[in-house]
Amino acid sequence: MILTFPVKVTSAVYKYLQVHLGPDYKLSETDHIGMYLYNLLRQPLQDKQYDKSVEKYTAKFPVRIVSSTVMNKRCKNCSSYTFYKFNTFIQNLLKAELHAYVDNHREFGLTMHGAIVEFMEKYDFCDEDYTFEALKKSYQRWKEDQAMKKNVHQICPALRPVAKLSLSA
């Protein structure tokens, strides 16, 4: 028997999951999102401070799960903290994909503005999900962070990776 339970998510996360997993997702341990959700459902996570945050999540992503998985493997944890952690994980995936998407498009001569607009169209994001400015700022911060990682070796040579020493006798 297959059960369907709703996972509370933000509208942006819902749209992202619809594109990547489809509307009829069955919990699976073969994809990274399924593995993460599966492990969250098995952990007894309780933290009341996230109740207010999760109340703001307007969308519900339906996840189908085999009833024996619920009973035998104890996938019963659906606390607000579980939903909060899942949303945070998906938002981090979304931002990483945005950064790679914009970077790749800029490599081929597209402007940052054009790449971000195209990314928003890909997931049908509106201003309630993510504004253009928020995505632009996220990309700019990420680029600055990448530049700082490259420059740290120039500023402090002691942090340079040490070559592996050969220990031959």
Characterize the structure shown.
The protein has helices spanning 11-21, 32-42, 51-55, 67-72, 80-107, 112-122, 132-155; strands spanning 2-9, 25-26, 59-66. By secondary structure, it is mainly alpha-helical. It has a 3-stranded mixed beta sheet. It is globular and about 55 Å long. 22% of the residues are buried.
Q: How would you summarize this macromolecular structure in one to three sentences?
A:
With about 170 residues, the chain is mostly helical. The protein is about 55% helix and about 10% strand. It has helices at about 10-20, 30-40, 50-55, 65-70, 80-105, 110-120, 130-155; strands at about 1-10, 25, 60-65.
What's the SSE pattern? Answer: EHEHHEHHHH
Unreliable segments of 5+ consecutive residues: none
Structural class: mainly alpha
Major beta sheet summary: 3 strands, mixed
Radius of gyration: 20 Å
Q: Please report the distance between the alpha carbons of the first and last residues.
A: 63 Å
β-sheet strand percentage: 5-15%
Q: Count every beta strand, where a strand is a DSSP E run of 2 or more residues.
A: 3
**Helix percentage range:** 55-70%
The overall pLDDT average reads: 84
How many helices in DSSP terms?
Answer: 7
Give the overall form.
globular
What order do the strands of the largest sheet run in, or round the barrel if closed?
1-3-2
In total, the number of domains comes to 1
Comma- or semicolon-separated keywords:
169 residues; mainly alpha; 3 strands
